[in-house]
Write a structure and sequence with these properties.
Helix content: 55-70%
Radius of gyration: 15 Å
Order of helices and strands: HHHHHH
Structural class: mainly alpha
Strand content: under 5%
Largest sheet: none
């Protein structure tokens, strides 16, 4: 195991912007998902922003991105900027999640109106 979630993700999925480091570890997605599940929001966001800085790029699988945003929003349920970022991700990788994305955008608007 690496010292950060980002390093684990880079080895497992690759990196569009940097070469994937040589690594002798046996990376398996189910182990990564387990690590992701119990990681703090700051570490998850660091991974997303480093490996997919423009939302539409990167090599993280859509299922990993969706789970990542879901976990961050569970840890930070009152973050309108994060809700919009998650909604943008869902819209880009939808249309199956367009209703969820619209709901997130609506919640973000309501939080900012308060």
């Amino acid at each position: 195991m690496h010292s950060t979630l980002t390093e684990d993700a880079r080895c497992l999925c690759g990196d569009e912007y940097r070469p994937t480091p040589e690594c002798g570890l046996d990376h398996r997605e189910h182990c990564f998902v387990e690590e992701l599940t119990f990681t703090d929001a700051d570490s998850i966001l660091a991974m997303l922003r480093e490996l997919s800085p423009h939302v539409v790029d990167g090599r993280l699988p859509v299922r990993v991105r969706n789970l990542s945003y879901r976990l961050v929003l569970l840890q930070r349920p009152d973050g309108p900027a994060l809700m919009r970022e998650a909604a943008q991700n869902l819209w880009l990788h939808g249309p199956d999640w367009d209703d969820i994305a619209a709901g997130l955008a609506k919640r973000a608007d309501a939080l900012e109106a308060d």
